[in-house]
Structures are given as C-alpha cells and as structure tokens.
Amino acid sequence: MNIAVSIPAYNEEATIAGVVRTAKEVLGKHRSYSYRIMVVDDGSTDKTAEIARREGATVHSHPRNYGLAETFRTEIQQFLKLKPEAEVMVHIDADGQYKAEEIPLLLQKIEEGCDFVLGSRFKGHIERMPLINRLGNKAFAAVISRITRTRISDPQTGFRAFTREVAEGIQLISNHTYTQEQVIRVVKGKFRVTEVPVYFAERKGKSRLIRNPFGYAIRAWINILRILRDYEPLKFFGMAGGLMFIAGFALGLRLLYFYFTTGIVGHIPSLILSMLLMSVGVQVITFGFLADMIKK
C-alpha cells in the first residue's frame, strides 16, 4: 500500500523532528507499505520547515499563516499531486500529542475495507485535556452523530486516515476548520467510516492551532449550521421558520389575552410584528421544503 503521511505544522520546531522520525521508523518496519512524509508548513516563523526537510520530509510552505482549513486543503492538493499516486493519506498533527507509532492501527482498518478512519481519543486514553475542551468535544460529537445518524465519538480528532477516493470526492467549504465538516461529508457520501482507540498525550506548552477556545467553538458551531443547511435544509429552515412562527403566534396570543381581559384595543406595532413573524416563519418553512425537494 502506497501511503502519504501528512503533517500540518505551525511553529513546531520543538516536536516536528520527533513526529517525522517516528513515522518513518514505524512505517519502515512494514514491508507491505511504501510511504512518503509530507509537511505543510503554515507560515512558520521558526525552523519548522528546515528541521522537517532535514528529517527527510517533503515540505510545502505557505507564505503566511492561513489556519487549519486552508492548510488541510493544501495537504489534500499535495497528496493528489503525488507521483506515483498514493492510495492512502494519514493526517497527524505536528505537536506530538498523537503517537505516530499508532499509524498502523488506522492503516489496518483501511486494509480491512474502510474508506475513512478516525483515531478516537475518547475511545482510547487521554493524558490530560482541559475541562472546557473535553465538554466542547463531547458536545460536537453529539451534534455530528445526530446530523450523520452515525455514532462518532471524536469528530474533532486530528489523527485520521482516508483513501484517495475520499480525498477526490469530498470538497470542504469551511474557512475555519476541516474536522467536523469532513466527517459529515464523508458519512453523507456513503463512504465506510470507523474509529480506532488512540493515545492522546498532554500538550507541552500552549496550542498554536487553537489560540482562543471560545472563538474556535463559535466558528465551529457556525460551520456546523452551514453544513446542516446544505445537507438537511428542511430541518434547518424548518427549525428557523418554526421558531419565528411560534414567536409571532405567542405574541398574538398575548395581544388577544389583553383584549379579552382589559378590552383595550391597540398595540398596533405589536400586532404588526406578530403577523410579520408568522408570515416570515411560514415562508421560511416553505423555502425549506423547496430546498429539500431540489436537493433530492
């Protein structure tokens, strides 16, 4: 099996050598694997790219820091350009929190016929994860599992392997992250998906990928809503329209209550708002039905 190990990196000069070296050692022990190590340097200002080249990796450098989503798109582009063609891409972070020694665990599932394999931290062992990160990851897992109707314990994981068919067939639109969106699109694309338990080490120093956990969470939720809009428009627009209609209906009931209890006729602005909310709600729900028909 021809494999490309792809490592996104941003100012990881302290850990990149160990990740590249370990990946080479592990894959070198398997005679049935031919492999290449790629590093996509996302505008690092330290010696990340230099060290990665010295360790034998092929390095593609961004002129500046573009972030997770754009870096992942570059990884896919570079993977698809490889000659001879690589059959499988393994994505692993450069900070050393995932163990490169466990790459064969993911590849084994690919050999067994899976198209997309996630290294699940929550099925494996987590040395340490801040409570807010743990709760956020659990919440995302619940939402992604509901959207895909597939039980996924760790859609946020940065340790994953997938076939060339997945790389060619899945187009990502997010400008923030790739993790949840790729999982949703792979499941909706009817590819075979599975998870394997992996080890997750404690981060040494601050994360360079997620500088603001709250901002990251907000952007990730926006991305999930966009995907829900694209894949389940009836649910997305139905919920939005339904909330508008209920709000307008509740306001209308309140006006009726005032009329029957006090006899006061008025509140014209509130009456207009009530009718407007119900009207727009119905229109949004109707749009959801139309979008769902077009999608099918």
How are the elements arranged and paired?
Blueprint (H helix, E strand, L loop, with lengths): L1 E8 L6 H13 L5 E8 L6 H7 L3 E4 L6 H14 L6 E4 L11 H9 L4 E11 L4 H18 L11 E4 H6 L9 H10 L4 E8 L12 H19 L1 H30 L5 H28 L1
Parallel strand pairs: 1-2, 1-4, 2-3, 5-7
Antiparallel strand pairs: 4-6, 5-6
Would you kindly provide a written description of the structure presented here, covering whatever features stand out?
35% of the residues are buried. It contains ten helices and seven strands. Helix 5 packs parallel to helix 8 (213-231). It folds into two domains: 2-231, Spore Coat Polysaccharide Biosynthesis Protein SpsA, Chain A; 233-295. The model has no long low-confidence stretch (mean pLDDT 90). The protein is elongated, with a radius of gyration of 24 Å. Strands 3-2-1-4-6-5-7 form a seven-stranded mixed beta sheet, sandwiched between helices. It has helices at residues 16-28, 48-54, 68-81, 103-111, 131-148, 164-169, 179-188, 213-231, 233-262, 268-295, and strands at residues 2-9, 34-41, 58-61, 88-91, 116-126, 160-163, 193-200. The chain is α/β, with parallel strands linked by helices.
What Rg is obtained from the alpha carbons, in whole angstroms?
24 Å
Class derived from helix and strand content:
alpha/beta
CATH C-level category of the largest domain: Alpha Beta
The helix/strand order is EHEHEHEHEHEHHEHHH
Any guess at the CATH architecture of the largest domain?
A: Alpha-Beta Complex
Using the coordinates shown, work out and report the CATH topology of the largest domain.
Spore Coat Polysaccharide Biosynthesis Protein SpsA, Chain A
Q: Report the β-strand fraction as a percent range.
A: 15-25%
Q: What sort of overall outline do the alpha carbons produce when their principal axes are compared?
A: elongated
